[in-house]
Write a structure and sequence with these properties.
The complex is a heterodimer of chains A (258) and B (321). Chain A has 258 residues and is α/β, with parallel strands linked by helices. Chain A is built from ten helices and ten strands. Chain B has a two-stranded antiparallel sheet. Classes of the chains: A alpha/beta (258), B mainly alpha (321).
Chain lengths: 258, 321
Amino acid sequence: MSEAKNKEVLLQADKLTRRFGGLVANQDISVTLERQMIHVLLGPNGAGKSTCINMLSGDLPPSEGRIHFMGKDITGLTAAQRSQVGIGRSYQRTNIFPQFTVLENVRLAAQSRRQQPWRIFSKAMEAKWALEKARACIDEAGLGKRVDWVSGVLSHGEQRQLEIAMVLATDAQVLLLDEPLAGMGSEESASMVEVLKRLRQTRGILLVEHDMDAVFAVADMITVMVNGQLLECGPPAQIKASVAVQQAYLGTEDSFHV
Amino acid sequence: MNVQASLILKLLVVALLACVPLTGESFYIEIVGKILVMAIFAMSLDLLVGFTGLVSFGHAAYFGIAAYAVAILSPQYEAASLWYVLPASIGLSALAAFVIGLFVLRTKGIYFIMVTLAFAQMAYFIFHDTPLGGGSDGMYLNNKPSAAIFGWEPFDLTNEVHMFYFILVMMVLVYLFLTRILQSPFGRALVGIKSNEHRMQSLGYFTFRYKLGAFTLAGALGGLAGFLYAVLFGFVTPELLSWHESGNVLLMVILGGMGNLPGVIAGAFAFEAMREVFADLTKYWQLLMGGVIVAVVLFLPGGLAGIPGRIKRAMQGGDAK
C-alpha cells in the first residue's frame, strides 16, 4: 500500500451548519474522511452527531456549508443519489426489512446498483450476480450462518451486522455508521469491532459511537462535538490528552469507561 | 398450502368459472362476468395498496376514464375495432394515472388518500357536468367493439358467452401478469418501498420512479376493467367514477386480504355476492354489508386470504403435540 493511497480523501465536509428554527444543531462542522481510516464522531447526547451524519448522507440538507466526495461537490444530491456515488449509511435505530430473509435484504441492496425498473418480466431471483454479491457481503459482515433466516427474528447484534452487509452490497466507498455497537453485548461488540477493522482495509468509515472502549480500539481519528460545535479533532492519543475534551466530556458526569 | 395444491385449487376455480355459461342463464353469465371485471379492478388496486403501500382512494377514475373512452371512441352506427379501442382506452387511463401520479406521489399517508380522492372527483365532475360524455345521464355504447382482423372474426363480443370468456381470459392474464411482475426486480423494489421507503432511498433507489411506474400500471389495469365493464353493460354513467366505486374496490381489497391476489379475487366475489344477497333480503342491505366488513376487519385482519392459514394453525394446535 502506497503512502499516496493512504492519503486519499474520500469525504470532506466544510463548515456544515444546520439550524432547526432558532436552534443551531450543528455549527461550522468540518470533517475529513480518508480511505483506510476509521473516523469517530464523539460527543454527549444532543451534541449534534446524528444531525451531522444525516447531512453527510443526504437525509438532511445543510443550512450552510459544502460537502465533497472524491473531489466532487455533492451538497445538492439526495440520499439516493449519494448512495449511487458510493456513500452508504446505517441507522441508529435498526432499519431493515424485517419480514424479508437476510438474503433478500442484502439482495435488494445489491439490486440497487443495476436498477432496470422497466424489465418487469425478468425474475429477480434469477439475477445471479445480485445473489452472489449478496452472499459475499453477508459473509463479509460475519452473518454467513443466517443467510436464509427471516431478518426480523435475528438478535439485535445480528441485525446491525445485516445493516452493514446491506451497505456493503451497495459498493459503498464511505460507510457512515450511526452507533453500530449500540445495545450490543460485549461479545457481539467485539466481533463487530473485528468486522469494522476488516472493512477499513479498503474503505473509509465514519462512525458515531458511545462505547469508549470500542472507540479507542478502532479509531484512527476522532472528532469531538459538544453542543453542536466542533471541540477538537485529532488522533486518539491527542483526544485522550486534551484538557478541553476532558473538561467538556470525558471527565465529568459522562465518564463512561475511561 | 403447498405449491401444487395451490395450483390445483386455482385451476379448479378457473374450470368452475369456465362452466358458468353452461347454465345458459343470462342472469348468471352477466353477474359472474361483472364480478370477474371487478376482480380485475381489485387486483389493479392491490398492486398499489397491497404491494406498494399506496392507499389510493380514487382508483375509480381510471376505471371510468377507460369506460368512457370506449363509448366516446366508438362510432354511433358501426362497431369500432377492438384492437384499436382496447389499447386506446387502456392507454388513456394509463396516461391519466401517469399525469395524476406525478402530483399525488409527492404526498404521503392521509394526504395521499385525500389527493387521489380529489383528482378522482375532478374526473367525476368532468363527465358529470360537461357534455363530453352525455352529462349526468351518461351515454350508451351503441355497438360493441368488433374483434375482426381483416374480415376474420375470432370471437364476437355481442355474444354473451364469448364476452364472458373474453373477460375470464383477461382476468387470468392480469393475474399471471401481476404475479410475474411481483417476482421481477421492479416488483421486489415495490415491496421494499411498502416495507420501508426511507431505507430504499438510502440504499440508492429512486423510489418516486418505482411508485410512478406502479401507479401508471395500476391505472392501466383499472382501465382494462373499466373497458370490459362498459362493453359488458353497453352504457356508462359518471357514477362509475364516483368515490363510492373507489371505496367499494378498496373494500374488496381489504375484504380479500391486501397483498394477496387470489384473496383479492375472492374479496371481489364476496363483496358482489353479499351485495346481491343482502339486497334481496332487505332494502337496508348496506347496513348488513357494513356490519360484515367491520367484522372482517376486526376478526380477520388478513382478510379472506388469511383463512387457510388460520385453519392450518387451528388444526396443528389441535394435534396435541
